[in-house]
Write a sequence for this structure.
C-alpha cells in the first residue's frame, strides 16, 4: 500500500515551500521563480571547491559537491526542514532530481554506484523513510547511476551530538558506521555517497572511511546543501 500512498501523494495539490504560491505540476515543491532563485553553490565538479576541501587531510575523498547553500534564516531552509521533520518525501525526490541535473554533465556522472548515508534502524522506524535515500532515488532517475542499498549500516550513535564538542563528535561518528554483511566486491568502483546536508563533514568522513578501509574504491560525495 505504501507505494500507492507515495504515488498519490505526488498528485496532491501543494504550495511552493518558499513563497507559498499554489503549484499545479505533480511532484513539484517549488514554483518556477523560487527554483530559479535558489542559492546554488555552482560548485559542480570544480576542483578544490569548498566541499572537496572539507576532506583534505582527513580522508581520501576524490571530490565533493553540493547543490545549494544553506543559509540560516533563509526561506530555502524550509526545503530540508519539510523533508526531515514534516514527512515531505516528495521534497526528497524533487531535490534529488535537481542534484541529479547538477551532476549529469560532470565527472560525477560516471560513478558506478550511489550510496545514501544510512539512518540508524531506530531513527528509520521513527521517521518512516531515509531522506538521503529519497534524494538518491531522485538523482538516480536523472543520472542513471544505480543505488547500492545495504552496503553500509549505522550502528552506534546512541548519544545526542548537541552537547559534544567538535572532537567528541568526530570520535562519536567514527564508530557510527560499519560494513553490512554480504557486500559485493567494490574494488575499483567509483562510489558516490549522497546526503542531505554537509556541515563539518564528520558523517560523510565516517561513511567514506568504512568503504575505503574495506575496498580499493574511489569515493565521491554529493549533498543537496552546504552549510
Ligand atoms: Zn515560490
Amino acid at each position: 500500500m505504501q507505494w500507492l500512498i507515495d504515488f498519490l501523494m505526488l498528485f496532491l495539490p501543494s504550495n511552493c515551500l518558499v513563497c507559498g504560491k499554489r503549484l499545479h505540476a505533480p511532484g513539484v515543491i517549488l514554483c518556477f521563480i523560487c527554483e530559479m532563485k535558489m542559492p546554488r553553490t555552482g560548485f559542480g565538479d570544480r576542483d578544490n571547491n569548498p566541499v572537496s576541501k572539507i576532506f583534505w587531510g582527513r580522508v581520501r575523498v576524490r571530490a565533493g559537491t553540493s547543490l545549494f547553500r544553506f543559509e540560516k534564516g533563509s526561506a530555502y531552509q524550509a526545503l530540508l526542514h519539510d523533508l526531515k521533520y514534516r514527512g515531505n518525501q516528495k521534497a526528497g525526490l524533487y531535490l534529488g532530481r535537481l542534484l541529479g541535473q547538477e551532476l549529469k554533465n560532470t565527472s560525477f556522472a560516471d560513478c558506478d554506484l550511489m550510496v545514501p548515508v544510512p539512518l540508524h534502524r531506530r531513527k528509520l522506524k521513527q521517521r518512516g523513510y531515509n531522506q538521503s535515500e529519497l534524494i538518491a532515488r531522485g538523482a538516480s532517475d536523472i543520472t542513471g547511476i544505480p543505488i547500492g542499498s545495504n552496503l553500509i549500516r549505522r550502528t552506534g550513535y546512541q548519544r545526542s551530538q548537541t552537547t559534544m564538542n567538535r572532537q567528541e563528535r568526530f570520535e562519536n561518528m567514527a564508530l557510527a558506521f560499519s560494513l553490512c554483511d554480504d557486500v559485493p566486491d567494490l574494488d575499483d568502483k567509483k562510489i558516490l555517497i549522497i546526503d542531505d546536508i554537509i556541515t563539518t563533514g564528520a558523517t560523510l568522513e565516517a561513511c567514506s572511511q568504512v568503504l575505503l578501509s574495506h575496498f580499493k574504491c574511489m569515493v565521491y560525495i554529493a549533498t543537496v546543501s552546504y552549510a
In short: The chain has one domain: 40-226.
